[in-house]
Specification:
Blueprint: E1 4-9, H1 27-43, H2 46-58, E2 63-67, H3 78-89, E3 95-98, H4 112-121, E4 135-139, E5 142-146, H5 164-176, E6 183-187, H6 204-214, E7 218-221, E8 228-233, E9 238-243, E10 259-268, E11 271-281, E12 287-294
Parallel strand pairs: 1-2, 2-3, 5-6, 6-7, 7-9
Antiparallel strand pairs: 1-10, 4-5, 8-9, 10-11, 11-12
Helix pairs in contact: 5-6
The structure holds fe (ii) ion (2 copies).
Length: about 300
C-alpha cells in the first residue's frame, strides 16, 4: 500500500501587512509594527510563500498541516486576507491549521483565529457551540490532534500556554483512541523545549509528562523559524518532534530560507514507518529537496 503523505508548513506571517488603523497601534502592537516596518517586512515575503505553496501542490500530499502565525499582529484586516490565502493552500478537509502567538497577538482579537478558521481545525465529531482545542481529525491512518498554545503576552514576549483544561481534555482524547491503530500527530505552535524564556511554552513540562504517559507518533510545531528535530520520551519509544522554518522567509541571520517537510507514513509489519523529506527555497529562488530522513 502506498504511504500516506502529510505536508507541514508553518509561520507564513502573511505579507504584505494591511495598513493598521491608528487606534490599533497601541501597546504591544506599536512595538511590533515598528519592528515590522524596520526589519521583518524584508524577511517575510509573499513571493517566497507563493513559491513554496505552489511547489507543495506539485507534491500532491494527502494532508497539509499549518502550525500557526498565519498573521502578524492579529489586526482585524489581517484575518480575511489569511482566510483567502489558506483557501489557496487547500480546502478544510485537506488542510488543518492551528493558531500561533501572532494570531492572538493582543487581547481584543485573541478569538479571531478560532472564529475565522473553525472549518480548518474543528474536529470530526459534530459539536454544539464553537470549535475548541484539542480537536481530533481522522484522515487515512492519521489522528491529527490540534492544540492551541496561542495566548496574548506582554511586550517583547512570545510565550505560549496550553492551560490545565486543554491538557486534561488532551489526556482524555488520547485515552479514548488508545485502543485504535492510529498514527497520532500532535500539532502545536510552540516547540516543547526552548532556550529562550521569552518565547517558551510555559507549561511544556506538563505536556511532556502527559506524552510520556500516553505517547503520540509525531509532534509538529513552528514558532522558532528553524529546522529542528528533537526526541522526547513516550511510553514505549522516543517521539520525534519536528519544527520547520517560516514558510515565507528568506535566509537571514541564523534563520534558514523557507522550507516545508513531507512525511510519508506507512505500516510495516506491526510498527509505523515514517520518512521525512525536506524541501527548501534556494538562492536561485527555486524549491529543491535538501534532505531525507527516516524518523520511524
Ligand atoms: Fe512565527
Ligand atoms: Fe510564533
Amino acid at each position: 500500500m502506498a504511504a500516506f503523505t502529510l505536508a507541514h508548513l508553518s509561520d507564513p506571517h502573511l505579507a504584505p501587512l494591511p495598513r493598521p488603523r491608528l487606534a490599533e497601534l497601541a501597546g504591544k502592537r506599536a512595538l511590533g509594527y515598528l519592528n515590522w516596518t524596520r526589519n521583518r517586512y524584508k524577511y517575510h515575503r509573499r513571493d517566497i510563500l507563493d513559491l513554496l505553496v505552489s511547489d507543495l501542490h506539485t507534491q500532491m500530499p494527502d494532508q497539509i498541516a499549518v502550525t500557526g502565525d498565519l498573521v502578524n499582529f492579529a489586526l482585524e484586516s489581517e484575518f480575511p486576507l489569511a482566510q483567502a490565502w489558506l483557501k489557496t493552500v487547500g480546502p478544510p478537509d485537506k488542510v488543518t491549521a492551528i493558531p500561533g502567538n501572532h494570531d492572538a497577538y493582543v487581547r481584543s482579537t485573541r478569538l479571531r483565529f478560532a472564529e475565522s478558521f473553525a472549518a480548518y481545525f474543528g474536529g470530526d465529531a459534530p459539536q454544539e457551540g464553537p470549535a475548541t482545542f484539542p480537536s481530533l481529525r481522522r484522515r487515512g491512518p492519521l489522528a491529527l490532534i490540534s492544540l492551541s498554545s496561542a495566548v496574548p503576552s506582554g511586550p517583547f514576549m512570545a510565550t505560549g500556554r496550553l492551560g490545565s483544561a486543554q491538557l486534561a481534555a488532551l489526556e482524555q482524547l488520547l485515552q479514548s483512541i488508545a485502543h485504535e491503530q492510529l498514527f497520532r500527530v500532535l500539532l502545536v505552535h510552540h516547540p516543547l523545549r526552548s532556550a529562550n524564556r521569552m518565547k517558551r511554552l510555559t507549561d511544556a513540562k506538563d505536556l511532556i509528562a502527559l506524552l510520556a504517559r500516553h505517547g503520540v507518533e509525531l509532534i509538529l510545531h513552528g514558532h522558532d523559524h528553524v529546522h529542528s528535530t528533537i526526541w522526547i520520551d513516550g511510553p514505549e519509544r522516543k517521539i520525534p518532534t519536528v519544527g520547520v522554518p517560516s514558510a515565507s522567509s528568506i535566509a537571514h541571520g541564523h534563520y534558514p530560507a523557507a522550507a516545508y517537510n513531507i512525511f510519508a507514513i506507512s505500516r510495516a509489519g506491526n510498527h509505523w514507518r515514517c520518512d521525512m523529506t525536506v524541501r527548501s527555497v534556494n538562492d536561485a529562488l527555486r524549491v529543491r529537496e535538501i534532505r531525507q530522513v527516516r524518523l520511524l
